[in-house]
Amino acid sequence: MRRIITALLSTITILVLLFSYRTSTNSGTPTASAAVGAALPQTSSSSTQTPSPTTTSGTGGGGDDSGGEDGSSGTVTTPAPKATTTTPSTGSGSRTSGTFTGDPAATRWGTVQIQISVSNGKITQVTPVQYPQDNPRDAEINGYALPVLGQEAISAQSARIDMVSGATVTSGGYIQSLQSAIDKAHL
After folding, report:
1. Which of 63, 71, 123, 177 could form a disulfide with 102 if both were Cys (CB 3.0 to 4.6 A apart)?
2. Which helix (H) or strand (E) holds 73?
């Protein structure tokens, strides 16, 4: 009888530990303050960003999302995105519409920045503003990863999307910038 109780308690302890373990992946969960801000009624307001050109440089070194395996380096200057002014709708029942640019997310291979278009509270388009493109390998990875991530974001209507295998570094930056844009849109 003692063995049965010990085995049962051990099993329960192990299950509790397994379910409470946090993984190291970026789940893109919104913060409590973002959820509270999204629930509040919106009043007329404007937000203006004053962007500046960004220059990134890096040296390739192997691994996923890496620069060339030959150790090549490169510098890319990405033009500044145009300043965006949005005026969220007011009144009960109205939803936010406009274009919102997320904060740039610095990753191991370069900066990732995302812009979303919102219509009546729904994400209708996700556009990468900045992403690693220093070499052919970056172009190859992002050529297939960015469209997949965009479709996932539109389908999920949130930043809770799966990372793309082989583009985990870019995916992490994408999710981080996407969450920032969603927070700015109060979705």
Report:
1. 177
2. strand 73-78
- Say which CATH architecture domain 42-185 belongs to: Alpha-Beta Complex (3.90)
* Residues near 99 by beta carbon (within 8 Å), at least 6 away in sequence: 84, 86, 115, 116, 117, 118
Task: Give how far Cα 142 sits from Cα of 44, 99, 159, 160, Å.
Answer: 37, 23, 18, 19
| Sequence-ordered list of residues with C-beta below 8 angstroms from that of 52, at least 6 positions apart, any chain | 80
| 137's tokens | 């390998």
Is the Cα dihedral 56, 60, 169, 144 positive or negative?
positive
Q: Cβ contacts of residue 8 below 8 Å, gap of 6+?
A: none
Backbone dihedral region of 31: left (phi > 0), alpha (psi from -120 to 50 degrees) or beta?
beta
User: SS3 breakdown of the chain: % helix, strand, coil, rounded to 5?
Assistant: 35, 20, 40
Q: What gap in Å lies between CA 175 and CA 158, rounded to an integer?
A: 9
Answer whether 178's CB lies under 8 Å from 150's CB. Answer: no
pLDDT in tens, 121-158: 999 999 999 999 888 998 899 999 999 999 999 999 99
